[in-house]
Amino acid sequence: MDKNAPLAYRLRPTTLADYAGQIDVVGEGTPLRKAIEHDLLTSVIFAGPPGTGKTTLARIIAEATKAQFTQLNAVTSGVKDIKEVCAQAEQLKTSLGQRTLLFIDEIHRFNKSQQDALLPSVENGNVILIGATTENPYFSVNSALISRSQVYLLKPHSVEDLEKILLRAIKSPEGYDGKISMHPEAVKKIAENGNGDARIALNLLEMAVLMIGAKISREDADKLLRQRSMRYDKKGEDHYDTISVFIKSMRGSDVDAALLWMYKMIASGEEPRFLFRRMCIFASEDIGNADPRALQMVVSAWQAFEMVGMPEGEYFLAHACTYLAQAPKSNAVTVAKEKAKAAVASSSLEVPLQFRNAPVKAMRQEHGHGVGYQYPHNSKGAVVAEDYFPIGYTGDRGFYEPSDRGFEADVRERIAKTKAVLNS
Predict the structure, then answer these.
(1) Which of 110, 113, 158, 141 is nearest to 237 (CA)?
(2) pLDDT tier at 362, thresholds 50, 70, 90
(3) Of 22-31, 73-82, 200-209, 220-229, which range is least confident?
(4) d(CA 161, CA 156)
(5) Is residue 136 over pLDDT 80?
(6) All domains of the chain, ordered by start, with CATH?
């Protein structure tokens, strides 16, 4: 091993015994671990954020298998390269009965035709595919390949896992061979700043040694790592996961958690208008008439943001977020919308004659348009006994069912009284 190579490269494990984390995937007794140990692997796709051990697992498999191990990188390889590997795999299997394991790093970068070129060889078993991706494979990898592979989702490393990796780097001959000393709190500080990424944590350790020396105190680590970087890709999987937990925190009425996730996104460079758009949707989808002011509140905050801009615009983001999170919740509007749409799809919806427009006298006199219409304002309470549904309609009539939360409790009572008159 080249001693001048980056620490993260030198420390890459070559056996499962040295592999840290991902116990659910490759822990003792798991199906994948047994398959690797007994050289019985079938096609797999490893998906997860950077630095979670996808390529490392592929390397461990390469060391453990008796099969021919071949690697392609989706950034630099094309259909021609794929077909060459598949042809060689078929020849090996036919002539020697030997399997071929093909590792494709960043498989999500292959387009559809490139992925399709793999299908015949994966399906007939000439090639055992090991794919690695930082994207959601169910969106970025062909469904045909997914159905022929076992998908394993790797999680960001815990702080404890990263501490083990850092201590191994300090003690291992491939790392610093025990020639440096580091305060336990300094190790923990670097692990925390790794944000679940082993490569980042090892790079931070390497930087600390280069800048501070062989003895690193807790204070040294604090000075070096004053600003913590966050794992957040505005176009990647973490973007969708973070906006998801932000919405779910507001839906669950946890004001503090909602603020935390929102400011994670802002600190990571998320577009504030995207957050306002999501909060506008939330105001109708999850609050609705339980607090009719919620949507107005978000729109007003957004307008104020457009006038003021950042950084003061953060006040309006926080104002809108805290209001939505603490507001009474109801999804009755959302349910009503879906019920009404379903009813529209199941009927021709002919308008009753008494409600039809009569712009010319003949339409009223000869066809009955508008005849018999009751003007609600002429009656007490401005509600009359009338059937406003389509001619012959027999479907669901109870689309909107208000909750008993917030202002919607008043709406519920009012609708009940109205329906009693309509149906009388």
Answers:
(1) 141
(2) low
(3) 220-229
(4) 10
(5) yes
(6) 22-153 (3.40.50.300), 159-224 (1.10.8.60), 237-326 (1.20.272.10), 348-422 (no CATH)
Tokens coding 240: 């969708």
**Angle CA 20–51–225, to nearest 5:** 100
* Token output for 20: 């840290």
Residues 23, 27, 31, 35, Cα dihedral to 10°:
120
Find out whether 249 and 258 touch, Cβ atoms under 8 Å.
yes
Pair 408, 370: CB distance under 8 Å: no
pLDDT at 117 over 80: yes
Q: Which of 205, 231, 219 is nearest to 51 (CA)?
A: 231
- Residue 210: exposure state from Cβ atoms within 10 A (0-12, 13-18, ≥19): exposed
Could you tell me which of 131, 157, 2, 141 has the C-alpha nearest to residue 54? 131
* Residue found by looking up tokens 């082993």 in the block: 198
pLDDT digits (tens, 9 = 90+) for 207-230: 888 888 889 998 888 887 765 555
- Go through the chain and tell me how many residues it has: 424
How many CB atoms neighbour CB 94 within 10 A? Answer: 10
- Burial class of residue 375 in the structure, from the number of CB atoms within 10 Å of its CB (0-12 exposed, 13-18 middle, 19+ buried): exposed
> Which of 82-86, 168-172, 316-320, 363-367 has the least mean pLDDT?
363-367
Which helix (H) or strand (E) segment is 204 a member of? helix 198-212
Mean pLDDT of 136-152: 87
pTM: 0.58
Provide the token pair at 303.
């307008």
Alpha carbon distance 131, 138 (integer Å): 13
Residue 10 and residue 173 in contact, taking contact as beta carbons nearer than 8 Å: no
Place of tokens 């592929």: 58
Span 259-283, average pLDDT: 89
Q: Cα(402)–Cα(283) distance, rounded to whole angstroms?
A: 15
Phi, psi of 265 (to 5 degrees): -65, -40
